[in-house]
Write a sequence for this structure.
């Protein structure tokens, strides 16, 4: 084990934060999540990889209840996912989500994008929300863009704003669903670096990505999915150098 992964592992493992037990989900006849058991501990960084259509996005979307499940249990920090209302809004704030398409509010400035949820969901006062938004925008390297509209920013900058917006809610866990897939190549690293820093700061993260460099350096664990199942889970070094299943070997031979 490398020093870096030893340090990562020392930070992880102080209690279960996200727990999925025997989760099943269908879209019509398609069994998109099959008997998913997955536990993420506080401070852990889990990278989810697998072929297109294997259920990675659906997995993320069930964790903040953008999708319902057919059976099984999901809990965050010891509490079952709420079904509706204010409790659901709070859950969504506790589970920060960053998508492939940045999903910023186009008619709001960058600053307003990062203030809005704090005011509406967390009931933070306006000045405190602005102070926090500015600090977070600085942290992700776009502090000077605060008064612009999203369309005036590059893709990499917009995605960093989306990360700041999620962080503004003080989430317990951050979900990233292919956050760099829609970016021009030269912008990928600026987003991955923000995510790396977040991981080093101890954020619990579930990251769907095909960026294997990120997986190797930031992940405590790689979860490999295929056809709606978790086929294999391992430490990144082990997974990349010695995948056990034929599905994983085949997948890696195509992307590496
Ligand atoms: P991945 O993110 O791994 O590419 P997804 O979770 O997006 O996979 O999709 C898994 C499967 O479920 C795919 O076959 C996809 O076409 C299907 N699917 C996803 N969302 C829906 C939906 N809302 N309705 C019907 N089928 C869907
Ligand atoms: Mg997907």
């Amino acid at each position: 084990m490398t020093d870096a992964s030893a340090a990562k592992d020392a930070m992880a493992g102080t209690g279960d934060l996200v727990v999925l037990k025997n989760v099943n989900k269908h879209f019509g006849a398609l069994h998109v999540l099959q008997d998913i058991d997955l536990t993420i501990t506080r401070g852990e960084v889990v990278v989810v990889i697998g072929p297109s259509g294997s259920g990675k996005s659906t997995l993320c979307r069930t964790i903040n209840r953008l999708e319902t499940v057919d059976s099984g249990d999901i809990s965050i920090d010891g509490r079952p996912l709420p079904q509706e209302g204010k409790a659901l809004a709070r859950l969504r704030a506790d589970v920060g989500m960053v998508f492939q398409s940045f999903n910023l509010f186009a008619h709001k400035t960058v600053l307003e994008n990062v203030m809005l949820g704090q005011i509406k969901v967390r009931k933070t006062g306006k000045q405190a929300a602005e102070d926090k938004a500015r600090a977070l925008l600085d942290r992700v390297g776009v502090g000077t863009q605060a008064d612009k509209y999203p369309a005036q920013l590059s893709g990499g900058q917009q995605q960093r704003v989306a990360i700041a917006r999620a962080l503004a809610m003080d989430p317990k866990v951050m979900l990233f669903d292919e956050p760099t897939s829609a970016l021009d190549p030269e912008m990928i690293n600026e987003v991955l670096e923000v995510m790396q820093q977040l991981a080093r700061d101890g954020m619990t993260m579930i990251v769907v990505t095909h960026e294997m460099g990120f997986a190797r350096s930031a992940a405590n664990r790689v979860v490999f999915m295929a056809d709606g199942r978790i086929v294999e889970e391992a430490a990144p070094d082990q997974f990349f150098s010695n995948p056990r299943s034929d599905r994983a070997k085949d997948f890696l031979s195509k992307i590496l």
Notes: Residues 137 and 143 are 5 Å apart (CA to CA). The longest strand covers residues 16-27.
